[in-house]
Write a structure and sequence with these properties.
eleven-stranded mixed beta sheet; 2 domains; alpha+beta; five-stranded mixed beta sheet; 377 residues; 13 helices
């Protein structure tokens, strides 16, 4: 796993950080990072969902007592990092960056065949040229782009959610199924065209308040979703296909939603074959504000009594050829995927087949049983 400084934000001394770890002696624990120590908050609040709902959230995180471990134990294997969410629903937004929207159109048009991608990409560029970059959903310019693409026979459902009034919001993965930093991430053995999606993830309470941010990898099967958007769940929700972490940075006087809006998220994929892929997703280029995405997820028509975490989409869509010219990027076993942002830290995982990753067996029933056996419920 990464060295300690690589995991934490560069301003960790000012950051209010919470997370979850698995202690082999007791089970999952809600923790706070304080300097070089990890402090167990589980006796004060046994679930992350419950902790984030509390009015005294920051006071508990900064002052509540409990067992303490060296932070290095999270890296040495003594404590296993878990995704910093538990009972929250794992939601995601797609096509929130206009530039990556084009790649979704290409997937659809190519019917999941990477050999056709380059030609379709060129057709779209010829049709709309430089008009794509600065589009805002619902603007007169977006209407004009729609007209051009319809005329060229290139209109797509992805363009509808990319530049139309309604955001794409879907359930990424079941409650408690996300993996944390250091874990293997899964790509099914049958997939031949897939990629990581480095994203900002917001933690949102039951009343719709965004209270913190972290990083996520919305692992995606381009060959599956490209065959049909109705296969979105098959493309997105597989064993170990959702990674979140390393820690959740809570909003406070030192870090807030305006800081989130200016974040850059860096992606580095390092293959055992020597291939290196790098890219950046800048929140400054997002087409829909992150709080608008929250508002389109929760409201009078949909409630989340345990809160939710929300993937906010990515600008990054890899097009660099890895093997065959024109076929772009796809994962290989052993790829090391590092997603990082200076003020959120780094989330690192290694790619394996979803069928070979550790099976997800610790669900809600197991969590409740564990907490009850520890006298925490």
């Amino acid at each position: 796993m990464n060295a300690l400084p690589d995991v934490l934000p560069v301003d960790a001394g000012e950051a209010t950080l919470v997370g979850r770890v698995f202690d082999p002696e007791s089970g999952p624990c809600v923790v706070a990072v304080r300097g070089e120590k990890v402090v167990d908050l589980t006796s004060a609040e046994p679930t992350m969902s419950g902790l984030l709902e509390r009015e005294d959230l920051l006071d508990i995180v900064k002052g509540a007592g409990g067992r303490e471990w060296p932070l290095a134990d999270v890296l040495s294997g003594r404590l296993t990092p878990l995704a910093p969410c538990d009972l929250q629903v794992i939601k995601a937004c797609g096509v929130t960056f206009v530039r990556s929207m084009v790649e979704r159109v290409i997937e659809e048009r190519a019917k999941g065949d990477p050999k056709l991608a380059a030609d379709i990409r060129n057709r779209i560029e010829d049709a709309v040229g430089g008009m794509i970059g600065g589009l805002r959903p619902g603007s007169p310019e977006s209407v004009r782009v729609k007209e051009l693409l319809v005329a060229e026979g290139l209109w797509s459902q992805y363009l509808e959610v990319g530049i139309g009034p309604d955001a794409e919001v879907f359930t990424k993965a079941p409650v408690l199924s996300a993996v944390g930093t250091g874990a293997e991430i899964g790509v099914p053995a049958y997939s031949r065209w897939n990629n990581p999606e480095p994203e900002l993830v917001l933690a949102v309470t039951s009343d719709g308040r965004a209270v913190g941010a972290t990083l996520g990898n919305d692992v995606n099967l381009r060959d599956v979703e490209g065959r049909s958007a109705l296969l979105l769940s098959k493309a997105k929700d597989n064993n170990a296909s959702c990674a979140i972490g390393p820690f959740l940075r809570l909003f406070d006087d030192a870090f807030g939603i305006d800081d989130v809006r200016g974040l850059d998220i860096e992606l580095t994929v390092t293959g055992t074959d020597g291939f290196v892929l790098e890219g950046t997703s800048s929140l400054r280029e997002i087409s829909r504000d992150v709080l608008d995405l929250v508002a389109q997820t929760v409201g009078p028509n949909h409630q989340y009594p345990d809160g939710f975490v929300l993937f906010t989409g990515t600008l990054f869509a890899p097009t660099a050829d890895r093997d065959v010219p024109g076929e772009g990027f796809t994962h290989k076993l052993g790829d090391r995927v590092r997603i990082a942002s200076p003020r959120l830290g780094a989330l690192t995982n290694v790619v394996t087949h979803a069928e070979k990753a550790p099976q997800w067996t610790f669900g809600i029933r197991a969590l409740m049983g564990n907490l009850a056996s520890r006298g925490l419920l």
